[in-house]
Amino acid sequence: MAKAIWNGVVLADSDQCEVVEGNYYFPPDSIHPQYFQPSNTNTVCGWKGTASYYTVVVDGQTNPDAAWYYPDPKPRAENIKGYIAFWRGVKVEA
């Protein structure tokens, strides 16, 4: 079971993660949505496509763009469509 934790709070947990380039991608139904706010940030990966981001909010503290996902990935990354990965201090325990 993998868990994503920030500020002592579990943001997501699942035993159905996909690991890509060392990052754990959590299924969309495994996140605790109350901690996620949509962001306007987008980045582009040459083989995965365009990523969208979430800002994580826990107890009034924000971690901008700490989670990302590919809503419409390129064909080679179809297995992570909609799955959420983390960085910026979010600890993933597996």
UniProtKB/TrEMBL annotation:
DUF427 domain: residues covered: 3-88
UniProt xrefs under Gene3D superfamilies: Domain of unknown function (DUF427)
InterPro entries tied to this protein: DUF427, DUF427_sf
Domain of life, source organism: Bacteria
Protein name: DUF427 domain-containing protein
Lineage: Bacteria, Bacillati, Cyanobacteriota, Cyanophyceae, Synechococcales
